[in-house]
Amino acid sequence: MQTTIQKWGNSQGIRIPKAFLEAVGMVENDLVELNRVDDNIVITKIKKNKELTLEDIFKDYNGEYEAEKFDWGSPVGKEAW
User: Mean pLDDT throughout 48-61?
Assistant: First the structure.
């Protein structure tokens, strides 16, 4: 597939056909990363981090936990202890 680099405001851009994007699993407004590899431009879709659920957060929790005291040091300002 061939396309032309065109002026787009103060930048340049290319139009990517919808069918081409669908073939690589991308859609309009996807966040992508551009990399230069030798004399090539590589466009990679940035995968979104899925939102963590409580089940995700505690999946490896075995039910045993004992709080530890932590020494925060002496007051250095006007903290109320």
Answer: 83
